[in-house]
From TrEMBL:
InterPro entries, sorted: Cadherin, Cadherin-like_dom, Cadherin-like_sf, Cadherin_CS, Cadherin_Y-type_LIR, Catenin-bd_sf
Domain Cadherin intervals: 85-165, 166-274, 275-389, 390-498, 498-609
Membrane topology: Single-pass type I membrane protein
Region feature (Disordered): 688-708
Keyword line: Calcium, Cell adhesion, Cell membrane, Cleavage on pair of basic residues, Glycoprotein, Membrane, Metal-binding, Repeat, Signal, Transmembrane, Transmembrane helix
UniProt organism field: Oncorhynchus kisutch (Coho salmon)
Protein name (database record): Cadherin-10
Name of encoding gene: CDH6
Molecular function terms, GO-annotated: beta-catenin binding; cadherin binding; calcium ion binding
Compositionally biased region (Basic and acidic residues): 695-707
Primary subcellular site in the record, as a coarse category: membrane
Region forming the signal peptide: 1-23
Length: 805
């Protein structure tokens, strides 16, 4: 409405100036170079910016600019100005022409009077001025009376545009507890009106909503805090409305508004606080170490990183019993158990917990306490517990010769719940048989004594590991188990023997007291002080001994010769009995035999000639190894003989399948059509007609006959020649009988092919052999009349019947 009033006021002022002036004062634009006389000029008549008519003397400077108000609201076309030529006498002989920006569309001219009007409502913000050209031409000859004149129509600005903000709405943040005058942000509004003309584009800012918290600078649009120390925890979001008004904020100016959403960002100005000073929790005594027993939460008015906190235990009546940590997702204090709880020993614990900010702000440390504390009381609840052994494991020792039923130790378990009731509750004991499958041990169910069920052998198993189970009498489901390790102690129950099998040789030219072998002993027992063995020659062999035994005092002994020479011919082998005794109690001993072979040696003692057994033994092979080698050699020889026999048998027999002649798995194709009727070599029907002309019975080519008797040939006497194919049937029957009785014939699944379809074929045979007519009924003499090409056929059929077939 204000905008309409302004436009109406300007129009009234313009009309007043036009009606009360001294008339249109014409300004004459002279043509160049022409003086006096008949000079012709084009006059532009208009108004200045203030609506005052302009007038200049002829041939002087010419006014070439019009002013036109924008946003014209009249019903008629808006008058711009007038063109007039000095040569125009009003007789209609001159026509005015207008060209340039908007000519004919925005601006029109009356070609008779030269009046220029604007046809549309113009907006300076779209285009500020228009450049046009005008001329006067003769209406008849259409020739220009003078040069073309150029002029400008400038659109005069009015205040028709309100200020507009670059954004709507604005969003920003400012830290809470900021001091007075802290800059929040700057808003900007623009006005499309002409900034060079008046105050239409001069914008002033003001705040319509948001006092008393914020303010805005009128000329710059900078928003600042108007109150100090605004607290986010009290109010976090603010909505501020800013107005921008043109005309320097004066009455009648146009205005625009925008909304600014201001959020107070958090700072760490609040310490954490416990909602309560005393917390109470309960936990059963069966809680496993590492489990959570309590969770407490302190409250912090801040958010995000400023609300992070740390918990710690400042005091506790259970040292090292508990730990506390912070759950970073919920900021809870989580108390966990480090050691097992025992209701019978301690029924409650008291802890002092302190909480503090993880990221304190030094600016606010002096305003309030930065930490807070609370007391936590943990009550231990009693549960029915299984029996508890007085040890985590038992180690018992027993000698391997102990008698069955001997007690080797005992276990003891008590019910921990009985201590709180000042009672003694007995337990029942048993052996976990899954750990004692051989049933070596047993336990007394009442007193826990462990005793033997069978004798032990340390050399078999040195340790026995079993589990003893203790259960309550009134509640057998509650049980506990403990490992029992039984060590079997050694007793001297094994006699020492040779460490290995010994066998050696002696030279025939050996000297007395010459060492021929060193022997050692082994004992399965393990005495505490270690082994000590004694070696000696058996008493029965010491009378006329050929060898002596010398104890080396280091658990070894040397076998020495006792005479100067030995004869391999008189005796090739000697058996030397050696007695080995140990030093433990009771003493154990055994007699072991050393075999000595007599061999021929050179002067240096190197063996030259000995029996085969001695040679093998000298090489270090035992009898078992020698037998294994011989057995392997025999197996290899048997394999070689068997392979040779198979090869020989394969050479005697030809393979059953010979190339492509195996009719069982091969299809033999004869792609030879023959040479026609004149080709008598391709197929001889006489073979079928005359079985006597066939070859003698042939042996099979795929398998060599194993019998020396040739197949029996049966001679079939054909009846007189009949023309009913009986000879072919007889031939086939003969071949069938021969194959049935032939021992060298192919197997039963072989295929014998006879190239003859027979008279029962659906397709029938094209051969004359299968003709339904008798050959005698046919007259073949006419074949001789067909020429030399059929001479052969005429000779076969045209003559008298013969048995040459």
């Amino acid at each position: 409405m204000l905008r309409g009033r302004t436009v109406l006021l300007l129009l009234v002022l313009w009309a007043y100036l036009c009606s009360h002036g001294d008339g249109l004062r014409a300004l004459r634009r002279t043509t160049g170079g022409r003086r006096g006389g008949a000079g012709v000029g084009l006059t532009l008549m208009g108004q200045d910016a203030n609506g005052v008519p302009l007038r200049r003397s002829k041939r002087g400077w010419m006014w070439n600019q019009f002013f036109l108000l924008e946003e014209y609201t009249g019903m008629d076309h808006q008058y711009v100005g007038k063109l007039h030529s000095d040569g125009d006498r009003g007789d209609g002989s001159i026509r005015y022409v207008l060209t340039g920006d908007g000519a004919g569309s925005l601006f029109i001219i009356d070609e008779n009077s030269g009046d220029i009007h604007a046809t549309k409502r113009l907006d300076r913000e779209e285009k500020a001025y228009y450049t046009l050209r005008a001329k006067a031409v003769n209406r008849i000859t259409n020739t220009s009376l003078e040069g073309e004149s150029e002029f400008i129509i400038k659109i005069h600005d009015i205040n028709d545009n309100e200020p507009k903000f670059t954004k709507d709405p604005y969003f920003t943040e400012v830290p809470e507890m900021s001091p007075l005058g802290t800059v929040v942000m700057q808003v900007t509004a623009t006005d499309a009106d002409d900034p060079t003309y008046g105050n239409s584009a001069r914008v002033v800012y003001s705040i319509l909503q948001g006092q008393p918290y914020f303010s805005v600078e009128p000329n710059t649009g900078v928003i600042k805090t108007a109150l100090p120390n605004m607290d986010r925890e009290t109010k976090e979001n603010y909505v501020v409305v800013i107005q921008a008004k043109d005309m320097a904020g004066q009455m009648g100016g146009l205005s625009g508004t925008t909304t600014v959403s201001i959020t107070l960002s958090d700072v760490n100005d609040n310490p954490p606080r416990f909602p309560k000073s005393l917390y109470e929790f309960k936990a059963p005594e069966s809680t496993e170490p590492g489990s959570t027993v309590a969770v407490l939460r302190a409250m912090d008015a801040d958010i995000g990183r400023n609300a992070e906190m740390n918990y710690r235990i400042t005091s506790s009546d259970g040292p090292s019993m508990f730990d506390i940590s912070t759950n970073r997702s919920t900021q809870d204090g989580v108390i966990t158990l480090r050691k097992s709880l025992d209701f019978e020993r301690k029924r409650s614990y008291t802890l002092r917990i302190q909480v503090e900010n993880s990221n304190p702000d030094p600016r606010f440390l002096r305003y309030a306490a930065t930490t807070d504390g609370a007391t936590v009381k943990l009550i231990v609840e009693d549960v029915d517990e299984p029996p508890v052994f007085d040890r985590v494991g038992y180690v018992m020792e027993v000698k391997e010769d102990v008698a069955v039923g001997t007690i080797i130790g005992s276990v003891s378990a008590t019910d921990p719940d009985s201590r709180s009731l000042y009672l003694f509750v007995m337990c029942r004991y048993s052996i976990d048989r899954r750990t004692d499958m051989d049933r070596v041990l047993n336990v007394h169910p009442g007193n826990g004594s462990v005793f033997m069920l069978r004798t032990l052998d340390r050399e078999d198993i040195a340790w026995h590991n079993v589990s003893v189970i203790a259960t309550e009498f009134n509640n057998p489901r509650l049980m506990s188990r403990v490992p029992v390790y039984v060590r079997v102690l050694d007793v001297n129950d094994n006699a020492p023997t040779f460490a290995t099998y010994y066998e050696t040789f002696v030279c025939e030219n050996a000297k007395a007291n010459q060492r021929i072998q060193t022997v050692s002993a082994a004992d399965a027992d393990e005495p505490i002080g270690g082994h000590r063995f004694f070696f000696s020659l058996a008493h029965e062999a010491s009378v006329k001994a050929n060898f002596t035994v010398r104890d080396n005092k280091d658990n070894t002994a040397g076998i020495l010769t006792r005479r100067n020479s030995y004869s391999r011919l008189q005796r090739s082998n000697y058996l030397v009995p050696v007695v080995i005794s140990d030093s433990d109690f009771p003493m154990q001993s055994s007699t072991n035999t050393l075999t000595v072979h007599v061999c021929t040696c050179d002067r240096e003692g190197n063996m030259q000639l000995c029996n085969q057994e001695a040679l093998v033994l000298t090489a270090g092979l035992s009898t078992g190894a020698l037998m294994a080698i011989i057995f392997c050699v025999l197996i290899l020889l048997m394999i070689v003989v068997l392979f040779a026999a198979l090869r020989r048998q394969q050479r005697k027999k030809e393979p059953l399948i010979i190339s492509k002649e195996d009719v069982r798995d091969n299809v033999v194709s004869y792609n030879d059509e023959g040479g026609g009727e004149e080709d008598t070599q391709a197929f001889d029907i006489g073979t079928l007609r005359n079985p006597e002309a066939t070859e003698e019975s042939k042996q099979r080519r795929d398998i060599k006959p194993e019998t020396l008797h040739p197949p029996i040939r049966r001679t079939v006497i054909l009846p007189p020649a009949h023309r009913d194919n009986a000879d072919v049937r007889n031939f086939i029957n003969q071949r069938l009988q021969e194959n049935d009785q032939d021992p060298t014939a192919p197997p039963y699944d072989s295929l014998a092919t006879y190239a003859y379809e027979g008279s029962g074929s659906v397709a029938e045979s094209l051969s004359s052999l299968g003709s339904m007519t008798i050959e005698g009924d046919q007259d073949y003499n006419y074949l001789s009349e067909w020429g030399p090409r059929f001479k052969k056929l005429a000779d076969l059929y045209g003559g008298e019947d013969s048995d040459s077939y």
